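Late entry, magnesium ion complex.
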Amino acid sequence: MNYAELYQQSIDKPDAFWSEEAKLIDWHTPAVQVLDYSRPPFSRWFVGGKTNLCHNAVDRWLPTQADKPALIAVSTENPDGVPTEKIFSFRDLHAEVQRVAAMMLSLGVAKGDRVLLYMPMIPEATIAMLACARIGAIHSVVFGGFAANSLATRIDDATPKLIFSADAGSRNGKVIPYKPLLDEAIKFARHKPGHVVLVDRGLAPMNIEAGRDLDFATLRIQHMDAQVPVTWLDSTEVSYILYTSGTTGKPKGVQRDVGGYAVALASSMKRIFCGNPGETYFCTSDIGWVVGHSYIVYGPLIAGMATVMYEGLPVRPDAGIWWSLVEKYKITRMFSAPTAIRVLKKQPPELMRQHDLSSLRALYLAGEPLDQTTSEWIGGMLGIPVIDNYWQTESGWPILTIAKGVDDHPTRLGSPGLPMPGYRVKIVNESTGAVCGANEKGVVVIEGPLPPGFMQTVYGDDQRFLDTYWTEANGKQVYSSFDWGIRDADGYYFILGRTDDVINVAGHRLGTREIEESISSHSNVSEVAVVGVDDKLKGQVAVAFVIPKNAEAAATPESRQAFALEVMAVVDQQLGALARPAQVHVVSLLPKTRSGKLVRRAIQAICEGRDPGDVTTIEDPAALQQVRAALSGP
Ligand code: ATP
Ligand code: MG
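Prediction complete; structure with ligand written out below:
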């Protein structure tokens, strides 16, 4: 079956399609109903079925590949940046997961209880996630870079009985203590966890609160021989809660099920990522993000692959590090983000070329728009397909991409591709809800029922799920992605930025992404952010912050001015004078989340003299300082 036939079947005969895909995983009890859509837009997948994510990720592979690697944890976060590795076979992983499951049970954690993880990229984090899945505890992983108040909000929302954490993380060889942040967060939070289990990496001293704080290693030793059978869960029970990145506002607690998610991941590993048992997968994300949940932890293991978990930067000890891992572990599929590739692009290409990359068959990139330059550069370097994929924390797996595991459908530059099975993607007019014609810009929406793996609801708040995401368009209930897009005549989709990233200049609506794309085509532009800023005369004007490739452009007020004029001229020529930024500022850093997403709302707030609000998701606060300085400087 080719892509078009497969997709059409998933839309026309969803029950038949998904019951076939469901065979990709193990079930304790098969489902009696594929989809219950009696209370739209809430979808309940594989009703009556019982399964378990940890069983499918670990136990399932014991009979055939107990001694093959399952988890390869590599860290370059030590003072000299030399990689250290810990390899767990499926047998080892099975034992470790049971130890942690037993420790949780001994602390009174039961099925349905929430367990929060605030952890660096260490194997204990993956093991703890799998242990939660094993006993039916609901994990909520909070990205280790978040500050105390962001963490406190998530503690109050998820109300965990137990928290797993560590003494410290490390970034660029510098120790970042976690424990003081965690203590502060717990102090801020209204909800108090019963226990905190701490992995002591010997990196930073910890204040231990007697009775509450426990040592991971000590508990582990007490449960060395633990045998904890998996708890079979209803397909529709909750596996985890994960908060969205908060790029556009208050994070939402995305709630995911068990069976639908397992099937969606197994299906995506086969159809999209071409994962085969015994091969090795490397996803460079962080377990704190959805990409890490789906494609560091669950997806590859469910497919019987070894998964590489990497703690460190892509350029330390040098920019060859990731490629040395590809060579060493014979990685076949790699998943990263455009932002990381742009970082590597600035490095000497020899560092990459010196490694044998012949095992690698495709590179998948997601998380933000993949610009043509980056895509072509990395594609040229690797000589393998570079596959953009578009999705959200909410979806849990790709919405749009090219299903390389199905057929050899061509990719198209600038487009993440075509809808994946079960996704009824439409582009609709923002005000009328009518479906847009080819190449006509509108909002990317998905008609219900949403496919397996997609969020079930906002945790603890069905009403917020309905109010936030669902609207009516074209007489149907649709889920809004809050992204702009177009669909071309051949059915390829293009993502044009977020619906709240639109600016209104003298009554004309312009996407900041389009202006950014245009500016990026200037040969001396490395990165750019465009925001709409209030203007008495025009309503809003575009203001651009540009990182030049060649630092000379930033050297003097004159060179900055000349560069700004060139940038404006490019926009003039490509999009017209209306889109021309009123100001072009030269900076060397832009405010981004650690997952590489530009936080435009913070830049915009500063430009308008407002408080930028919650900026704890921003990787480097110096970036905001640069924006301020650029606005006040000559
Ligand atoms: P919040 O919803 O809290 O504001 P967020 O949307 O940044 O946070 P995520 O769910 O991590 O949180 O990001 C999903 C968004 O990332 C998409 O809606 C889209 O805007 C962008 N995105 C992801 N992949 C791609 C891609 N391949 N091309 C273009 N944009 C992408
Ligand atoms: Mg979002």
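The mean pLDDT is 95. Will revisit in the morning.
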